[in-house]
Amino acid sequence: MVSFEEVTTLLLALFTLFLAYFTYNLAKESRKLREFQLKPKISISLFVDSPEPFLYLQIKNIGQVRAHNIKFKVIKDMEIIDGKFISDIDVINEGLEYLDVEDIKFYYLTNFKNRTDLLDKSFELEVKYRSIELDKTFMDTYPIRIIHYVWDLSQKNLKNYGFLEFLEK
What we know:
Number of strands: 9
Number of helices: 5
CATH topology: Immunoglobulin-like
Structural class: alpha+beta
Largest sheet: 4 strands, antiparallel
Helix content: 25-40%
CATH architecture: Sandwich
Distance between the termini: 86 Å
Strand content: 35-45%
């Protein structure tokens, strides 16, 4: 027959294993939370300066800490206007030393009034950046289609830019 002490010892051992497992998972979640709180996040998109028909490349740090050593790589290039490509933009070639939290940089691409030839175009950028706090490098890829950003314009601006008739086809 099993003694009371043996049952108590077994239950205590099982409870200790449960606590060890729970503590391990708690520590793992704490590490994930710490990494999230110390992670920069670079976002790349287009910005339309409405009511003017100017198109900008927008680079923003939407993370929690400063992003360092930001480098860009063109995966798929796109001609913006008359022999000028995305890969020709200075920031794409030179990168950025850092970008603070919520900091936004705009880089002029083109005046796209009556430029329906741009609507079907797209490009793709890869961005690498570093978190000094985590001593870790991150990489993201951004496929950008021009037409996705034009949809956000009002009907009036689409007509003024010469796009409404093109989009209604």
